[in-house]
From TrEMBL:
Keywords: Glycosidase, Hydrolase
Gene3D superfamilies linked to this entry: Glycoside hydrolase family 3 C-terminal domain (3.40.50.1700), Glycoside hydrolase, family 3, N-terminal domain (3.20.20.300)
Domain Glycoside hydrolase family 3 C-terminal, residue spans: 111-288
GO molecular function, one term: xylan 1,4-beta-xylosidase activity
Signal sequence bounds: none
Top-rank lineage group of the source organism: Eukaryota
Any Gene Ontology biological process: xylan catabolic process
InterPro entries from the UniProt entry: BXL (IPR044993), GH (IPR017853), Glyco_hydro_3_C (IPR002772), Glyco_hydro_3_C_sf (IPR036881), Glyco_hydro_3_N_sf (IPR036962)
Protein name per its UniProtKB record: Glycoside hydrolase family 3 C-terminal domain-containing protein
Length: 289
């Protein structure tokens, strides 16, 4: 069955002014294939749409049939719900090896390669024994699942993922993604000088981009750009910039910086995000391009 985003049918009428009346909005949505509204709009205005001849009762019945059919498949009309096959689902059903493997596979497929100069990637376990893992998103957990997410079975952070392939030197470089100061950049530069390769995990989180939170610009927040540029200049080995964010970020400075060999966009990659990032960095999985 097809369900709307919450309040979207109301937005169709109240904000976008797609129709002259709320009844027309309800009729148009149902006739376009919507079966269930997240919100009260259809409950309030569908009867008026039928009475006004804008919508047939058969159209409403069809939407209802699709919705009830799914409820039947779930056993919701077969007595006590807890006694049915789907009545006691819990973490043991979600956190199976197959489901956790699927989370890793989804993260692999969601990573996009934006830059790879002079075959910077993949890194090599033979040449890159020590990796400096730097950035405010380098050792995060909840950030990786974004918003409107369930409870993760467990997390593999970028730092943990990379640690499976090489010895790591970790520095946050910033106090959170807001990165309002540069007090930690010096330590990050020292780490980059000591490592065979440097991975900077930068970007955003729900404090910067979320529903009802508008961003003021497209650049990396605060002193993040300064951190990236200074660390890239100090790094002894190849430098990879990893962007963890949902919305667009202008990283033209990194694209044009010859010291930054590769750029990966990983979105909010989920509970297995750190493992997927490391797999791509070391060539075990191929990113999209």
């Amino acid at each position: 069955y097809i369900v709307s985003d919450c309040d979207s049918v109301g937005v169709l009428y109240n904000t976008q002014h797609y129709t002259r009346t709320p009844e027309e909005a309800a009729a148009d949505a149902i006739k376009a294939g919507l079966d269930l509204d997240c919100g009260p709009f259809l409950a309030i205005h569908t009867e008026g749409a039928v009475r006004g001849g804008l919508l047939r009762e058969e159209d409403v019945n069809l939407a209802l049939a699709y919705t009830i059919t799914v409820q039947m498949r779930l056993g919701m009309f077969d007595g006590e719900p807890s006694a049915q096959p789907f009545g006691n689902l819990g973490p043991r059903d979600v956190c199976t090896p197959a489901h956790q493997q699927l989370a890793l596979q989804a993260a692999h497929q969601g990573i996009v390669l934006l830059k790879n100069s002079a075959r910077t990637l993949p890194l090599s376990t033979l040449r890159h024994h020590t990796v400096a893992v730097i950035g405010p998103n380098s050792d995060v957990t909840v950030t990786m699942i974004g918003n409107y997410a369930g409870v993760a079975c467990g997390y593999t952070t970028p730092l943990q993922g990379i640690s499976r392939y090489a010895k790591t030197i970790h520095q946050a470089g910033c106090f959170g993604v807001a990165c309002n100061g540069n007090q930690l950049i010096g330590a990050a530069e020292v780490a980059a000088r000591q490592a065979d390769a440097t991975v900077l995990v930068m970007g955003l989180d729900q404090s910067i981009e979320a529903e009802f939170i508008d961003r003021a610009g497209l650049l990396l927040p605060g002193r993040q750009q300064e951190l990236v540029s200074r660390v890239a200049k100090a790094s002894r080995g190849p430098v990879v910039l990893v962007l963890m964010c949902g919305g667009p970020v202008d990283v033209s400075f990194a694209k044009n910086d010859p010291r930054i060999g590769a750029i990966l966009w990983v979105g909010y990659p989920g509970q297995a995000g750190g493992a997927a990032i490391a797999d791509v960095l070391f060539g075990r999985a191929n990113p999209g391009t």
